[in-house]
Design brief:
about 475 residues, elongated, alpha+beta, Outer membrane efflux proteins (OEP), 11 helices, 4-stranded antiparallel β-sheet
């Protein structure tokens, strides 16, 4: 009895062994603080909410994002891959427990006369069996099955984080497509208004040429400006149609057919919240879904090393059955019909032509790749966030200057138009003022859209990809 308890204790102790290397998170290969051009502007700001509804406040944009989260096919694929990874993890996890099957069978045979060395007569035999069987259950002395289970679990969780990252990307892409569509619509409206104004001045120049006040050169300049406005209008309408098709693709449903979608606001009325950040890069970056997915892939690679190492050691498997057996069906459960079998086996690799060594080399190489991928992901995330933070500040300054320029050019155009109508300014001066004013207004719309797109990308770069507020989450 004491020997049995000792063997059981040894088996339990060995079952807790693991050949996997002790995991240590690699140090983040980035600076300990944000660059000076953005760090001082973030003092005291902390993360409050990841809810996209709080970040994108415009009702129409919220409706488009909600529709995309429901209908987008790529998101459905990413979600299905989570279910696939979860099922694969369940398959591997099942190997940690014995598989017991209920069995029932009949075995009958006939040996013809003269074919048996034991009897000259024909031999007829049959046997009925009912019981429970255990097939090839491995005692996980060296943690091989546990390591495989840990690797499958990490891969499943990495797939889940990858889906969160894609979800954030989809939200940002829908917002950017919507902003681009708004920009193109407003620029097209501006081009239509400009073409209409240039039509009036072309007709005015034609009349003045007929009266001998303007020259053929003035008329050709007016005609060229008018045709350029028409060309820009057609170009913007083409881009607007392409932007509409892109938005339909991202939403997964024609936007025009969405019911109860609120009317939208102009570009200047978009209220995309300012990102609130943690003070240190590690606190903001290490919780990103893509970084978490990269670390989980590293954990899976680390666990696979443990499984590859355990393959060098003996493997003990158990096979057995217990039940009843009888020559007749009605005697299966009679006293004395009990039957059992127990077949433990020990397999020790002696010669495998280097297979196990190669498998270990593959596992270790994949861990090196996973470490580099994790570090690269952090570096890319740091660069992305630093660029966006800097762009957010610079675009705010650029937009203010561009709007001031547009206002100044519009005022200049009014003065030149008044001077031209009374014959003080020439047509070349008017044409220059028109071009400068049109370009300034178009530039202001472009910069405003870039500023809003930067705020959208910051949400994608720093949100955790969950709908809970951070203070409600468990650490």
């Amino acid at each position: 009895m004491n020997k049995k308890f000792a063997l059981a204790a040894i088996a339990l102790a060995l079952a807790g062994c693991s050949m996997a290397p002790t995991y240590q998170r690699p140090e983040a290969p980035v600076a300990a603080a944000w660059p000076d051009n953005v760090r001082l502007k973030l003092s005291g700001e902390m993360v409050r909410s990841d809810r996209w509804q709080d970040y994108f406040a415009e009702p129409r944009l919220q409706g488009l994002i909600a529709a995309a989260l429901e209908h987008n096919r790529d998101l459905r694929i990413a979600t299905a891959r989570i279910a696939e990874a979860r099922a694969q993890y369940g398959i591997v996890q099942a190997d940690r427990l014995p598989n017991v099957n209920a069995t029932a069978g009949r075995n009958a045979s006939l040996t013809p006369a003269g074919a048996s060395a034991f009897s000259p007569n024909a031999i007829h035999s049959q046997r009925y069996d009912v019981g429970l069987s255990l097939l090839s259950f491995e005692l996980d002395f060296w943690g091989r099955v546990t390591s495989l289970n840990d690797a499958a679990k990490a891969s499943y969780l990495a797939t889940e984080e990858a889906q969160r990252a894609f979800r954030l990307s989809l939200i940002a892409d829908v917002a950017n497509a919507y902003l681009s569509l708004l920009e193109l619509r407003e620029r097209a409206e501006l081009a239509v208004s400009t073409a209409k104004t240039r039509t009036e001045y072309r007709e005015l120049t034609m009349r003045r040429r007929e009266m001998g006040v303007s020259s053929d050169m003035d008329y050709l300049q007016a005609e060229g400006a008018y045709q350029a406005a028409l060309a820009e209008q057609s170009n913007l309408e083409r881009q607007q149609a392409a932007a509409t098709n892109l938005l339909d693709l991202l939403v997964g449903h024609p936007v025009a057919q969405l019911k109860d979608l609120p009317s939208g606001r102009p570009l200047a009325g978009q209220d995309i919240g300012a990102v609130q950040l943690a003070e240190l890069p590690a606190e903001a970056l290490l919780r990103r879904p893509d970084v978490l997915a990269a670390e989980l892939r590293l954990l899976a690679a680390n666990a696979n090393i443990g499984a590859a190492r355990a393959a060098f050691l003996p493997r003990v498997t158990l096979t057995g059955s217990v039940g009843t057996a009888s020559r007749t069906l009605n005697g299966l459960f009679d006293p004395g019909s009990g039957a059992w079998s127990f077949q433990p086996s020990l397999a020790m690799p002696l010669f495998d032509a280097g297979r196990n060594s190669s498998n270990l080399d593959v596992a270790e190489a994949r861990k090196v790749i996973a470490v580099a991928d994790y570090e690269k992901t952090i570096q890319q995330a740091f660069r992305e966030v630093a660029d966006l933070l800097n762009a957010r500040e610079q675009l705010a300054t650029q937009l203010a200057a561009q709007q001031a320029n547009a206002a100044a050019q519009a005022q200049r155009l009014k003065l030149v138009e008044a001077r031209y109508r009374v014959g003080i300014a020439n047509h070349l001066e008017l044409l220059d003022a028109q071009r400068e004013s049109f370009a300034a207004q178009q530039g202001a719309l472009q910069v405003r859209r870039l500023q809003l797109a930067t705020a959208t990308q910051l949400y994608k770069a720093l949100a955790r990809g969950t709908e809970d507020a951070p203070e409600e989450r468990k650490p």
